[in-house]
Design goal:
Keywords: DNA-binding, Transcription, Transcription regulation
Shape: elongated
Structural class: alpha+beta
GO molecular function, one term: sequence-specific DNA binding
Radius of gyration: 27 Å
CATH architecture of the largest domain: Sandwich
Number of helices: 12
Protein name: AraC family transcriptional regulator
Strand content: 15-25%
Oligomer: single chain
Pfam families: AraC_binding, HTH_18
Length: about 290
């Protein structure tokens, strides 16, 4: 039976939610390996938080994440004042003197998290800019849902499963912010577009020159960049995509080998079978028997 007290929940602003992990809860959580990697010590949502402010001469042991949804506020850190506006956020590093507060004219509505753990420094580094500037965040309701789910988990009994789930949801939330540019750049880069081009032309036989021209690179530069990204030469990768597609045909259709060859751009069934076995480790017929 769980006799530990529930986390402390305070009220200060109309509609506010605030959960602070008690010493007893923290002691229990420390028994879980996930806790040491990343965990919130406190989390809250302050809507229309007029006169909200904090000042800490020596900072605190946790990182502080501030996410403004509406209104405005400010953060003073390292001799600089950062303005926090709607859809911007900032992380104050551990043990760093700081002050922050809501605008008196246009009070902010913010989510905030105090977090720590082995992953905290890396997430802070990935999120922050060298110039200590507020980071713009495209509004995404799924992120708000994650924050509310973390709060709900911490408001209730502190079971092992909820400790673990809190850890994973916090990772999901912070990583969605810290690596959003990486994901966007990956989607937009020319090599990714080239791979997408390959996937829509599996019936064809594409030369390295055609692929390089499509990506607006010389053959040598295209081949270099492609291998850096994928670990394969462009033609090797294209063949792998063809073989992967042929596996789908073998699994989910009644097409024979000759028909599959036509669908994935192989003129010679024997060459297709040789490439298939090299990549999959089985002949096409052996693969079909194994998976059906």
């Amino acid at each position: 039976m769980n006799n530990l007290p529930k986390p402390k929940i305070k009220e200060g602003f109309l509609g506010q939610t605030m959960v602070v992990i008690s010493p007893e809860q923290k002691e229990k959580a420390q028994q879980q390996p996930f806790f040491h990697n990343l965990f919130p010590d406190a989390i809250g949502y302050f809507p229309n938080a007029k006169h909200h402010s904090r000042s800490r001469k020596n900072g605190i042991k946790e990182y502080i994440f501030l996410y403004c949804l509406e209104g405005e506020g400010w953060i003073k850190i390292n001799g600089k004042t950062i303005n926090l506006k709607p859809n911007t956020a900032f992380i104050i590093p551990e043990n760093t003197a700081h002050k922050y507060g809501s605008s008196l004219k246009d009070a902010w509505s913010i989510y905030w998290i105090h977090f720590s753990g082995n992953y905290a420094a890396t997430l802070y580094k990935r999120f922050s800019t060298p110039g200590d500037e507020a980071i713009k965040i495209a509004f995404d309701e799924s992120r708000i849902n994650l924050l509310n789910e973390i709060i709900k988990l911490l408001e209730n009994d502190f079971s092992d499963e909820k400790i673990e789930l809190t850890h994973f949801k916090l990772i999901a939330f912070l990583s969605s912010l810290c690596y959003s540019n990486t994901l966007n750049n990956t989607i937009e880069d020319k090599i990714s577009h080239s791979i997408a081009f390959m996937k829509t032309h599996l019936k064809q036989v594409l030369s390295i020159e055609t692929l390089a021209n499509q990506a607006f690179y010389s053959v040598s530069r295209y081949s270099e960049l492609f291998k850096q990204k994928t670990g394969y030469s462009p033609i090797q990768f294209f063949i792998r995509l063809k073989i992967q597609k042929s596996c789908e045909y073998l699994n989910f259709t009644n097409l024979n080998i000759k028909e599959i060859c036509k669908e994935v751009g192989f003129d010679d069934p024997y060459y297709f079978s040789r490439m298939f076995k090299k990549q999959i480790g089985l002949s096409p017929m052996q693969y079909k028997k194994t998976h059906n």
